[in-house]
């Protein structure tokens, strides 16, 4: 049968080809904007030509964009309809997995390729967006699932060696649910049975996806791909293996590339075709979860053109493309070939770093001008963490440090920094009672100061360097003064500096934002506070670091002030509050929130100024009586807060109110209620509800 006719028959007379390659939603006979150029008016349509019986494209805005589906593919791939028609047919067959055998005699002028045996008719793999917008009569023509059965076997040594060339081990194959097939049995459109056996020189592998799609891959066969079971929606491979949040995800051209990247500790997915625009709903999901989405397509002409076109189509999501230093030949064109040729993950990381630097080349001028030049002190007058083995500052999370003016917050911040820049672990006494995890690999430590002068920032950095027993500032420690930048520029600079330093120092150990409230116009602006804290939380996840947010407010008991304080109380994994002791020469550090357990059970620490050391020093843990007194005062504050607008609450309502107010576990809230009752802070009424006692 004529190959051209077979393609038309299997693609609803070419309609599926238009859906597949255009990558936009459209309904036949209705006008839409042409995605092939910057179309401003919907004057393009796909219609059924009654004379020829096939679907055609007509653009009244630009008559040059008119023709059948074969013309469209040739136009997009830069192929000539006369001289390259055979290649156009082959690309449609491969990209849409139509499974039409092409190893036969041809007539290049007409594309009349004859076949000698029947093959099963797979469904045309159009974008699901087209299915949801198609007319009812067209939908009824969708073909059923392929009638294919597979017999499996263990991977042979030769097969494992094949995958091993790309760094893909047996454990990676198991993780991605790849199996070795012994044979494939199917029934053709005409009802004839056929069987394909795996051979040592022609192996057969099977991919399984989360939506139960089953795809057969025969790398040495001219018919490389076919479906044993089609996906229920958009075909996407590797999505279920991605982390919840991360720094970068690649979109590749095939399943082998996804596994090769995963085997080298990179995140990746692939779709049904690298020539079609990926489904927008999945791109939106990836955009929420990852800082960067990068196209990593084949280095042949088709791959490069497709990547450039899709990058433009998805520019609203910040999608970028990365080109590999490969020749673009059959054996040297994709990322799996890159690793097979002996290139390493470190080499790929360096190429990625160059891409990141290119992205931020313009904006880096601004943030670099804000970096403290420690070797040249500024002119005068122009300025991760445990407590008693309980984590308060952890990777991927926010850690809040709060307190009023003059309580020693800057010195406490310097103590935290000193533990991350020291050459070896510092004693807890040196870091004012905190246990700071050392940073032997020299990952970036970044300090942003939003309110103090450059000169004062220099003094604070010097305190941290001195406390760490160092003579000079390490190269991986960066301090930025943002007081003279606008609020919008401050957050932009923070984003840029984190991304640049993450790649320069192969990770980030700690980020401190001294004056987080200065990132919003008002600490009581609820919407802006939510947006800023959510963004900081996302950044902590992107770079797998701890972000310390210093809030210059005196807390109301155990409740942080302002909407930005409320958001920090909700999102932060740990909160420490610094306040003056009864003896004003000392400051007291108390825990307001920890992820596990009750913060009221953690001892209070104190520190004060030592003239001999010329710095604040650790003064020890407060007496148990002081801690108990403070605990009762904090519980009174909590009780007053939950009974502020009501006279009485049931036990369950009290638990919920405390959980909502404090962002703690229900079991901890129940412990609070028990202590409140024992200390006569609340009393139980005859109807089993509770009220606040007068004290």
From TrEMBL:
<dbReference type="Pfam" id="PF13155">
    <property type="entry name" value="Toprim_2"/>
</dbReference>
<keyword id="KW-0067">ATP-binding</keyword>
<dbReference type="InterPro" id="IPR027417">
    <property type="entry name" value="P-loop_NTPase"/>
</dbReference>
<dbReference type="Pfam" id="PF13481">
    <property type="entry name" value="AAA_25"/>
</dbReference>
<keyword id="KW-0378">Hydrolase</keyword>
<dbReference type="GO" id="GO:0004386">
    <property type="term" value="F:helicase activity"/>
</dbReference>
<keyword id="KW-0347">Helicase</keyword>
<dbReference type="InterPro" id="IPR034154">
    <property type="entry name" value="TOPRIM_DnaG/twinkle"/>
</dbReference>
<keyword id="KW-0547">Nucleotide-binding</keyword>
<protein>
    <submittedName>
        <fullName>Bifunctional DNA primase/helicase</fullName>
    </submittedName>
</protein>
